[in-house]
Task: inverse folding
């Protein structure tokens, strides 16, 4: 349909983004599950040899592509999830003012969660740039980049005293 | 005589239910990731998550993701012009693909 009014255009754009983010999430979740959950059962049989291990998460986040991957993942998941919740609310709530309040609340919650997620990602970069003086894994003084290979390949136990 | 709920209705209920749970799951997931800034606490949480019951719930999460994702693909295909007469076939295909992927994935997760 041509010559849509601005409201229709906004609705169509929202719908399209909902579908596009859903399709994107299928791909991103496939990567996420393969890397985090399927690798050695997502858990470590050998200490430190899990993709979910703190050092391994940091190793990935030190790569710009992984950082972008997680930023896009966070944005797509929040948009898709909250767009869906917004649609469900619209189906069941008939009182317009209540619906407007719920929509505003969902928008605020999604923005807050996005900000929290981005803060985690930014913080990870700050930690990589300024690592704690005492390494939590090998308890040797040094930077995270200097010993992250050790952590990734899993030599030594976690919280080794 | 009451009609039996069809595949379309079942798919709708599954899609909606899994969607709500997955959307709400973002909050605890981000809460755990917040502890990335505190390696000792993050590792403590991860050790807790390595318990069998937690791993089983992780497999459950895979089930929710597969149910929602495959059903979403089915909806998109129908919206993109796939004939509505094949919607039951698409539903069955999604169920079969979902079960296969779930058991393969859960097996890897429970190793």
Result:
């Amino acid at each position: 349909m041509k010559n849509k009014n601005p409201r229709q255009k906004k609705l169509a754009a929202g719908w399209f983004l909902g579908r596009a983010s859903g399709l994107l999430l299928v791909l991103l979740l496939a990567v996420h599950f393969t890397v985090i959950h399927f690798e050695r059962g997502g858990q470590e049989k050998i200490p430190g040899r899990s993709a979910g291990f703190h050092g391994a998460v940091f190793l990935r986040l030190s790569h710009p592509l992984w950082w972008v991957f997680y930023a896009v993942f966070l944005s797509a998941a929040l948009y898709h999830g909250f767009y869906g919740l917004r649609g469900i609310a619209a189906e069941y709530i008939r009182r317009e003012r209540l619906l407007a309040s719920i929509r505003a609340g969902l928008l605020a919650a999604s923005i807050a969660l996005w900000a929290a997620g981005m803060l985690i990602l930014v913080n990870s970069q700050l930690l990589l740039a300024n690592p704690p003086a005492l390494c939590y894994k090998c308890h040797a003084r040094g930077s995270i980049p200097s010993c992250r290979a050790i952590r990734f390949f899993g030599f030594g136990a976690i919280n080794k005293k | 005589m009451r009609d039996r709920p069809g595949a379309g209705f079942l798919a709708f209920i599954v899609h909606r239910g899994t969607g709500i749970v997955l959307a709400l799951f973002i909050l605890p997931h981000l809460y755990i990731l917040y502890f990335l800034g505190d390696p000792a606490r993050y590792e403590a949480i991860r050790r807790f998550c390595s318990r069998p019951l937690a791993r089983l719930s992780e497999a459950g999460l895979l089930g929710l993701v597969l149910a929602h994702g495959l059903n979403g693909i089915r909806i998109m295909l129908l919206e993109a012009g796939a004939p509505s007469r094949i919607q039951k076939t698409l539903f069955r295909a999604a169920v079969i693909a979902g079960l296969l992927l779930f058991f393969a994935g859960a097996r890897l997760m429970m190793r």
Observations:
- Confidence is low (pLDDT under 50) at residues 41-49, 133-161 of chain A.
- Chain A touches chain B through 39 residues (CB under 8 Å).
- DSSP finds five helices and no strands in chain A.
- Residues 9-153 of chain A form a domain with the 3 helical TM bundles of succinate and fumarate reductases fold (CATH 1.20.1300.10).
